[in-house]
């Protein structure tokens, strides 16, 4: 069963190793409380909290994709498929400098090679993607979105994006 370790609220939201002895479990997961349930297949080695290291979930189009590793853990901590990130849009992909990312309906989780995964969403995500995402001048996220007076802020390896009173400001380092 997917167990949410916490719930993260989207503020500016307009928007590997496998162990052959690990068990596989199939549980229904509701992507939208008003829709029908879909099956999510969990595989992999159990973590200390009992959650699997990966799961297969359907995209909005119904194609199953895997969410795994640190991105999976961050996804579950943010509420999983019923949280603000929603369903995956595509499979995990390689980012610059050996990073990894996965896009979801409500945001992107980016995991740098030597760092923690962070979520970028809403208008901040739109501005980051317009700058080229992790390949752009701002680089990869180094923080989750945080509250600031009047809005939200996300920090990146190459700068900061703030969303205050509905206005986006990109500040390069």
Note poorly predicted spans: 1-11, 13-51
The rough form would be described as globular
Report the β-strand fraction as a percent range.
25-35%
Listing every helix as H and every strand as E from the N terminus to the C terminus, the arrangement reads EEEEHEEEEHEEEE
**How would you characterize the largest beta sheet?**
4 strands, antiparallel
Content-based structural category: mainly beta
Helix content: 10-25%
**Estimated radius of gyration:** 16 Å
Number of helices: 2
Termini distance? 42 Å
Instruction: Note the quaternary state here.
Output: single chain
Please tally the β strands and state the result: 12
Strand arrangement across the biggest beta sheet: 1-2-3-4
Mean pLDDT: 78
Q: Could you please describe the fold and organization of this structure?
A:
The longest helix is centred in the middle third of the chain and has 9 residues, at 69-77. The chain has a 4-stranded antiparallel sheet. β11 and β12 form a beta hairpin. The protein has 173 residues and is mainly β. Helices cover 10% and strands 35% of the residues. The chain has 2 helices and 12 strands, in the order ββββαββββαββββ. The chain has helices spanning 69-77, 122-130; strands at 25-30, 37-43, 54-58, 64-68, 93-94, 100-104, 107-111, 118-121, 146-148, 151-156, 159-164, 167-172.
Strand and helix layout:
Layout: E1 25-30, E2 37-43, E3 54-58, E4 64-68, H1 69-77, E5 93-94, E6 100-104, E7 107-111, E8 118-121, H2 122-130, E9 146-148, E10 151-156, E11 159-164, E12 167-172
Antiparallel strand pairs: 1-2, 2-3, 3-4, 5-6, 6-7, 7-8, 9-10, 10-11, 11-12
């Amino acid at each position: 069963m997917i167990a949410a370790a916490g719930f993260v609220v989207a503020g500016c939201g307009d928007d590997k190793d496998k162990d052959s002895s690990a068990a596989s479990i199939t549980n229904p997961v509701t992507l939208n409380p008003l829709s029908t349930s879909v099956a999510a297949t969990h595989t992999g080695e159990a973590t200390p909290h009992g959650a699997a290291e990966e799961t297969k979930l359907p995209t909005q189009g119904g194609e199953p994709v895997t969410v795994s590793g640190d991105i999976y853990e961050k996804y579950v901590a943010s509420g999983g498929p019923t949280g603000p990130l929603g369903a995956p849009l595509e499979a995990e992909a390689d980012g610059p400098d050996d990073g990894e990312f996965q896009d979801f309906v409500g945001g992107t989780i980016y995991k740098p090679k030597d760092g923690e995964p962070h979520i970028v969403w809403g208008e901040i995500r739109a501005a980051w993607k317009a700058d080229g995402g992790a390949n752009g001048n701002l680089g990869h996220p180094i923080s989750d979105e945080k509250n600031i007076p009047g809005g939200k802020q996300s920090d990146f390896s190459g700068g900061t994006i703030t969303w205050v009173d509905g206005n986006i400001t990109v500040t390069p380092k």
